[in-house]
Amino acid sequence: xxxxxxxxxxxxxxxxxxxIMYTTYRGYSLHKNFAVTxxxxxxxxxxSSSGKLSSHTGTYFKYRFKVNNDDYTGExxxxxxxxxxxxxxxxxxxxxxxxxxxxxxxxxxxxLFCEKDYKEFDLSVPEEFQxxxxxxxxxxx
Length: 141
Description:
The chain has helices spanning 3-32, 82-85, 115-120, 130-139, and strands at 34-47, 58-67, 70-78, 96-102, 105-111. It has 141 residues and is α+β, with helices and mostly antiparallel strands. It folds into two domains: 1-32; 35-139, no CATH class. A five-stranded antiparallel β-sheet has the order 3-2-1-4-5.
């Protein structure tokens, strides 16, 4: 390798390593320090490779929640065809769902969309969300 490429390659590899470590730490911290709360959907639409949520395609959701009277927002996407998302029967703005958040950093949160999300945190699905979660599970690929 030519010497002019060594420094940019070292910087690029260092950034990739930092990104992997940061993502791993956020997931570890969320699993170690999680708490459950309700959140409310305030926007949803199509996630695409050109949008802000470029790591996923499907349908994105933006949500709000409160922890200790402080307001937080988050966003996520599910691998669900946009054509299917239009069929969501009761997905009005303001729809209540649940999420887990990191007690030490509430900005680190994850919406609980599918039964596997509840199982990931060893939680049972509340009865009031079972119909919606069953429907979402059937739409996802």
